[in-house]
């Protein structure tokens, strides 16, 4: 898991009026995450109907209300799940039969105790 990129999400607020401008999505390399070096690649404005837009090198993210510069306020690290259901190894035939046998036993015990 250490070789994976860590996804980060940041809120972008106006420097002048403190309104929320939008949010940024990016990544941080595992060796750089502790130092805070991040690279953002997508921006979504707060305004209604806004789309997620890719960031280019010279984009200036400004407040729609006052025209102030947007500054990163809070950065949240998004932790990826370790294993999905598809990535788990499939149960062997022996494990499947053991599981079925346990279920039958539990079902019988439940019937007898009722």
Features:
elongated; alpha+beta; 5-stranded antiparallel sheet; 114 residues; 2 helices
Structure description:
With 114 residues, this protein is an alpha+beta fold. The protein has a domain at 6-78. It has 2 helices and 5 strands. It has a 5-stranded antiparallel sheet with strand order 4-3-2-1-5. Strand 3 and strand 4 (52-54) form a beta hairpin. The longest helix is centred in the last third of the chain and has 21 residues, at 93-113. The radius of gyration is 24 Å and the shape is elongated. 10% of the residues are buried.
Give the arrangement of secondary structure elements.
Layout: E1 6-14, E2 20-28, H1 30-33, E3 39-45, E4 52-54, E5 70-78, H2 93-113
Antiparallel strand pairs: 1-2, 1-5, 2-3, 3-4
- Compute the separation of the termini in Å: 48 Å
Gyration radius, to the nearest Å? 24 Å
* Average of pLDDT: 78
- Give me the count of strands: 5
Instruction: Identify the overall geometry.
Output: elongated
Strand percentage lies at 25-35%
Sketch the major β-sheet: 5 strands, antiparallel
Which residues form runs of ≥5 with pLDDT under 50?
none
Helical segment count: 2
- In which order are the strands of the major sheet placed? 4-3-2-1-5
| Helix proportion | 10-25%
Kindly name the structural category.
alpha+beta
Instruction: List SSEs in N-to-C order.
Output: EEHEEEH
């Amino acid at each position: 898991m250490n070789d994976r990129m860590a996804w980060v999400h940041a809120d972008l607020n106006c420097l002048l009026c403190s309104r929320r401008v939008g949010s940024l999505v990016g990544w941080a390399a595992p060796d750089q995450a502790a130092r805070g070096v991040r690279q953002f690649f997508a921006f979504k404005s707060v305004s209604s109907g806004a789309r997620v837009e890719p960031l280019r090198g010279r984009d200036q993210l400004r407040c729609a209300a006052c025209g102030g510069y947007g500054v990163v306020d809070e950065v949240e690290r998004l932790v990826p799940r370790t294993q999905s259901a598809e990535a788990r190894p499939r149960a062997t035939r022996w494990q499947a039969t053991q599981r079925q046998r346990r279920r039958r036993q539990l079902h019988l015990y439940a019937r007898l105790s009722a």
